[in-house]
Write a structure and sequence with these properties.
Elements: H1 6-10, H2 18-29, H3 37-63, E1 70-74, H4 76-79, E2 91-95, H5 102-119, E3 136-138, H6 139-152, H7 155-165, E4 168-172, H8 174-190, H9 193-202, E5 226-228, H10 229-248, H11 255-261, H12 267-270, H13 273-287, H14 293-296, E6 298-300, H15 306-332
């Protein structure tokens, strides 16, 4: 299996239509990695890194070098290294120094967002992109924003914080993001009621199985007959491990890595890791020929055999059990014994 490396992309840098050529390269080579989650996410990482590098070079040619050290980080499925064939954009920028540098980095964020769009990553509907002032800050301003999100503890601000927490630096100063996460852990430790508020915030998930054990696809609209794999199947696993990572101060954003880094006392939680690994494989297996970001999340249940439906239900039931056990841990306020 061929894994793309960024040096191959740099050969495109001198071409006038570099973003479009990177997209063409993507379309020609993604089939080489679409059957393996780790290789596919390395492929995405290299595409994004190269696009960011081109954007930086373009902005430097127009505005000069960046006025401060910075970190470009990704969130969502990209942050967790759980992207499928298609993905939208979720990213931000942290820069050192004065907040007055923000105009430069917002300009850079806009170039990055546009470049990624040309390469094949849809704009985020919620504008969670470094071109948005809410997701581009100095270190000091980021710290204040995270404190505000947690202190306000509204449905919206906790969703912002959860999005931020599933993040990793893809270009620049990795320590900037680590420092912010550690400060967030300290805030949570000093206000333990926030774990319960976060639990409530993450509890609103769409059920995919009915009381009689039947699959529950959408009943209307263009996706009628399909299950949204993201909301009905992935969320119980992703939300559970995010909550436990916050509680145990695990910085890593990957759901699999969070499973692995939980203390040994979480033996009853760790048993669900294999179901999540299987889910990652099945999503790629069922959706590798998807033509768009909109399509990649929806699985038509009529396309499945009886055995495939049974396996899917087993994975979904394990996700619900995992979230129920996570609820108990959070509500008790202590690690499992």
């Amino acid at each position: 299996m061929t894994v793309v490396n960024s040096s191959e992309y740099r050969e495109l840098d001198e071409h006038s239509n570099r973003y479009q050529e990177i997209r063409q390269w993507r379309n020609e080579h993604i089939h080489e990695v679409w059957g393996h989650s780790i290789a596919l996410n390395e492929f995405h990482d290299n595409l994004i890194k190269t696009t960011v590098q081109i954007a930086i070079e373009k902005v430097e040619s127009e505005l000069g070098p960046a006025p401060a050290h910075f970190a470009f980080f990704i969130m969502g499925s990209g942050g967790r290294s759980e992207q499928s064939i298609w993905s939208d954009q979720d990213h931000g920028i942290i820069f050192d120094g004065k907040e007055e540098y923000k105009s430069y980095f917002l300009y850079l964020g806009k170039e990055i967002s546009d470049g990624l769009y040309f390469v094949g990553y849809e704009y985020c509907d919620g504008k969670v992109m470094s071109s948005n002032p809410k997701w581009c800050h100095s270190m000091d301003a980021w710290q204040k924003q995270i404190d505000d999100w947690l202190n306000k503890a509204s449905w919206e601000t906790l969703r912002y914080f959860s999005t931020f927490f599933d993040s990793r630096v893809l270009f620049g100063e990795a320590d900037f993001l680590k420092k912010l996460k550690k400060l967030a852990f300290l805030t949570l430790k000093n206000a333990p009621y926030l774990y319960t508020r976060l639990l409530e915030n993450m509890s609103h998930m769409k059920k995919g199985i009915g009381i009689l054990g039947q699959l529950l696809p959408d009943s209307s609209g263009k996706e009628a007959g399909s299950i949204n794999m993201k909301t009905a199947i992935f969320f119980p696993y992703v939300n559970s491990l995010r909550l436990l990572a916050l509680k145990e101060e695990i910085i890593a954003p990957s759901t699999l890595t969070r499973f692995q880094q939980l203390p040994d006392s979480y033996i009853n939680i760790k048993k669900y890791q294999s179901s999540f690994e299987r889910l990652l494989y099945l999503r790629l297996y069922y959706k590798k020929h998807s033509k768009s970001y909109e399509d990649v999340h929806f699985l038509n249940i009529d396309s499945l055999t009886k055995a495939e439906k049974q396996e899917l239900k087993h994975i979904m039931k394990n996700g619900y059990k995992l979230f129920a056990e996570t609820k108990d841990i959070i509500r008790k306020g202590c690690s499992p014994c």
